[in-house]
Write a structure and sequence with these properties.
By secondary structure, the chain is an alpha+beta fold. The chain is built from eight helices and nine strands. Strands 1, 2, 3, 4 and 5 form a five-stranded mixed sheet that branches. It has a four-stranded mixed sheet with strand order 7-6-9-8.
C-alpha cells in the first residue's frame, strides 16, 4: 500500500469521473459464509467485513514486495471497488482453498481475497451469488463503546446486508488511510475493534458535517448516486486533523 498522499483532484474517493476511471479496474472480493441453518447476525457480518478489509490492508503480503502488493496497488490506483458474495457448504470450502484471509466474528465468517480484475474473477468466486445476503439481528445491537471506532450507517437508506458490508468496508478503509502509522499499528495490535451501528436520524446531519471520513456511493446498485452511506468515527480522528490530501468520499459499487 502506498503511503504517499493522493491529490484531491485525482482521489479514488471522488464521485466525479477522473483519470482513475481510465486505469484498469480491480475489485476486492469478500465472501460471507451463510449457512441455511445458522446464518450470521447482520451487525456481526457488517463488523466482520470491515475488519476483513482492514486485515488485508495491514497484512505484510499487501506491502512492499509482498505477493499481494502489486494487486493492492493496482486496485488502489483505480476506483476502490468491493463486492460481497455469499457461500455455504462446498462453495465455502472451495472459497477457503483460494489465497485470502478468513476473519471470524461472533457468528460471522468473512473471507477477503487480494484484488482481481473487474472482469477476471476466479471461477470458484465468480459462480457465487451476490443476491441473497439479507440478514437479521436476533436481538438489537448493544450501544457502541464511545471509546472505540464506530462506523455509522445512514438511517434513511435501506441496504441489503451485502451492500452494507461493502459500505462498512469502505468506511473502515477511509479511516485507515487517515490514521498515522502509530495509530494504525495500535488499531491492528488491538485486533481492529470497531462497531457498526445505524445513526440516530437527529444526529446523522451532525456526523456528516464534522470532517470525519464519509462514504458516498456511486449508485451502481441499490441506492441513488451520491448517497452518503457511512461515516467513519475513529477516536483518533476526533482528536486532531489528519491532512492526508484524500477526499473523504468514495465512489463504490
Amino acid at each position: 500500500m502506498s503511503e504517499d498522499p493522493t491529490p484531491v483532484s485525482d482521489s479514488p474517493f471522488r464521485s466525479e469521473p477522473s483519470a482513475r476511471d481510465e486505469a484498469p479496474q480491480f475489485v476486492l472480493p469478500l465472501v460471507v459464509r451463510i449457512e441455511k441453518a445458522e446464518p450470521p447476525a447482520r451487525t456481526d457480518a457488517l463488523e466482520t467485513s470491515a475488519r476483513a478489509v482492514l486485515t488485508i490492508l495491514a497484512d505484510e503480503r499487501s506491502a512492499g514486495e509482498g505477493e499481494w502488493a502489486g494487486a493492492m496497488r493496482d486496485w488502489q490506483d483505480a476506483r476502490i471497488r468491493k463486492v460481497v458474495r455469499r457461500a455455504r457448504g462446498a462453495e465455502w470450502r472451495r472459497a477457503e482453498a483460494l489465497p485470502g484471509i478468513t476473519v471470524t466474528g461472533k457468528s460471522a465468517e468473512v473471507r477477503v481475497f487480494p484484488p482481481v480484475p473487474l472482469d477476471g474473477w476466479p471461477k470458484d468466486l465468480a459462480k457465487l451469488q451476490v443476491s441473497g445476503t439479507d440478514l437479521d439481528d436476533p436481538e438489537p445491537p448493544v450501544d457502541a463503546d464511545p471509546a472505540a471506532p464506530v462506523l455509522w450507517l445512514n438511517p434513511d437508506l435501506g441496504m441489503s446486508a451485502g451492500k452494507a458490508m461493502a459500505q462498512a468496508g469502505h468506511a473502515a478503509q477511509l479511516a485507515w488511510w487517515e490514521l498515522s502509522d502509530e495509530e494504525r499499528t495500535a488499531w491492528r495490535d488491538a485486533g481492529f475493534p470497531l462497531a457498526v451501528r445505524t445513526a440516530d436520524p437527529a444526529r446523522w446531519s451532525d456526523l456528516t458535517g464534522i470532517g470525519l471520513p464519509l462514504v458516498r456511493d456511486a449508485g451502481f446498485t441499490e441506492i441513488a448516486p451520491g448517497s452518503c452511506t457511512v461515516v467513519a468515527d475513529h477516536p483518533a480522528l476526533r482528536r486532531e486533523p489528519h491532512g492526508s490530501g484524500r477526499a473523504a468520499s468514495t465512489r463504490s459499487q
